[in-house]
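Build the 3D complex.
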Amino acid sequence: MEKLTKITAISLPLDRANVDTDAIIPKQFLKSIKRSGFGPNLFDEWRYLDQGEPGMDNTKRPLNYDFVLNQPRYQGAEILLARDNFGCGSSREHAPWALEDFGIRVIIAPGFADIFYNNCFKNGLLPIVLEEKIVDHLFDLTQSNEGFQLIIDLEKQKIQSGIGFPAVDIDFELDEFRRHCLLEGLDEIGLTMAHANDIRAYEKSKKEVTPWLY
Amino acid sequence: MSNDNAQTLYDKLWNSHIVRENENGTSLLYIDRQLIHEVTSPQAFEGLRIAHRKPWKLSANLATPDHNVPTNHRAKGIIDPVSKLQVDTLDQNCDYFNITEFKMDDIRQGIVHVISPEQGATLPAMTLVCGDSHTSTHGAFGTLAFGIGTSEVEHVLATQCLIQKKSKNMLIQVDGCLNPGVTAKDVILTIIGEIGTAGGTGYAIEFAGEAIRSLSMEGRMTISNMAIEAGARAGMIAVDDTTINYVKNRPYSPKAEVWDQAVAYWQNFYSDADAHFDKVVTLRAEEIKPQVSWGTSPEMTMAIDEMIPDPAAESDPVKQAGMQAALNYMGLTAGTAINAVTVDVVFIGSCTNSRIEDMRAAAAIAKGKQVADNIKQALVVPGSGLIKQQAEQEGLDKIFIEAGFEWRDPGCSMCLAMNADRLEAGERCASTSNRNFEGRQGQGGRTHLVSPAMAAAAAIKGHFVNINEL
Ligand code: SF4
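Done.
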């Protein structure tokens, strides 16, 4: 998993509440045997004008230019500004897979659905919960300043604006354990790997007792 | 006198697999065996590749395709492209990482939960996982076995461990002797009917008592297979001579002097006499009758001599609505005798009931008889290629075919209808599988869970019937 310490990037305002995981990645794409490659189908139904099916050449599909994701000023965004209850609905891990594959690293919202929130950390995504009026303010700044950038500093747990934009200075909270995982780029596997010596020691001692398993 | 050191079977299994205990109350648990199939593994393998990781311990893994494989004309390959891609991907992943796989054309191929015990890859006192909820099956060997998700499959591949929180202990004790015609399937359906599908949530269940002890390993696997239907991720049965005799001389089981060492070790895996259980449920074996499920949840089950229950008699309004919805879906009327209900399709198979003993029990009923005219299809799907071979050596295939059953190749088949074997809307099926959820065997299909003997009897009579009255 990629480390996340400090990122400076354009923010993308998705001005809808209750965005569910089926909207994030529609069910027809779950037949895939892959964990990657979901990016081109992120928000498929809003993003394209036609009906998306697996196997289509997405570069040839008609884009919906009314949808923020397709607007030139937001290209290259890595921070998603969202509304309340983001990621509700089915538990599919394909939703964070799609966001991550598209290039999103941070999602800021007044609230997240539980399972989605947990799934984010397993995939190197940082979901930040902020008060509704602060999120409103970030939406305003993003929409009224073309190229608006945010700096997310995970070490200091601070959000600031990029140079030359109206200043913001926001603190955010995060569980210490999860912060540590993201900073070190540790997924659960990485964490367990950090105990590789314990695992080897266990195997060595068990080899005496249950040699038929080794 | 209570003894603080007394441990349950589950405690012993848990404690002997702790690699380290974390501050937050979880443990890093060592996993001895992982079984892999085509549906829940592709993203786990891809994750390994992306992170440039290798399987921690190759020999701990065993793979086979089962959910998507066709059960006839197998030489022609898989027609459905989505199914084919999943099976091909499993083959490629196993070849790439060097994981032992019984491919579709291997005689050892079959349902994961059937082939692992058959090969001796499931052994007493181990921890075993698979990306499949019916992994509880392997608990029959005094093994801690439970289903996991795709991220966890990858976690086990990479580290041979899982981060887990311990469950509570539940004991389900079945005292006394089962009456003739009453099988393991009837016992577990009765248990689920009794405690409900959420009755075991948060617990690891140990099944014990004289009636459980007297079951063969096949019967014990049928019981622990459905622990998940009672809400428990793991169900288990203590090690005894039946367990050890079953395991002996299988391809993966220990040999020579290591065998004796293993047996001595395994014999410790039972609950101490004064061990503490958080919940205890006791049943009398003599009171258990052949079962037929009537609704859309495994807890909606009844004895063959009863009437379909009336929702009006239920005081809890939520339950009452659930019962009514189930009757509507199933096309049944309260008060009807279940043995008056006719059947369209019969399915004998699945990881619950596709072992040699199940084949024998069904063949004993079918022998010299004919499938009733109203039966559109009667399928017998053995759980593995080796079971199929054994059944053919015993002449069971001929009994089935002469009676009008179809004798198929091994796989999950109509248990979940991911391959071509499925019910049409409205069709009623007597099935030896484990889930009667809406649409489980095909959209609009109606599933009644029964034992293999009861399924064969329904095929012969064309309706449900008490096998003791045949
Ligand atoms: S037989 Fe049915 S329950 Fe068993 S593993 Fe296959 S699909 Fe799952």
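The mean pLDDT of chain A is 90.
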